[in-house]
Amino acid sequence: MSDKKTFVLRIDAQTYDAIEKWAADEFRSVNGQMEWIIHKALKDAGRAVKKENKEKPGKK
Questions:
Q1: Distances (CA, A) of 48 to 8, 40, 54
Q2: Which Gene3D superfamilies match (predicted)?
């Protein structure tokens, strides 16, 4: 099961429309585009969280 969290985001209609068009241009959903934007902003700011290397027991 995914450990993603859900939350409500309120933005004005013009901003949503711009993100929706950008997402369509990139072949992503609006949600996927927002995740990408947030991840990129965190990475650019040097605040990206490094994902843990989750190996299965017994694998090296």
A1: 22, 8, 18
A2: Met repressor-like
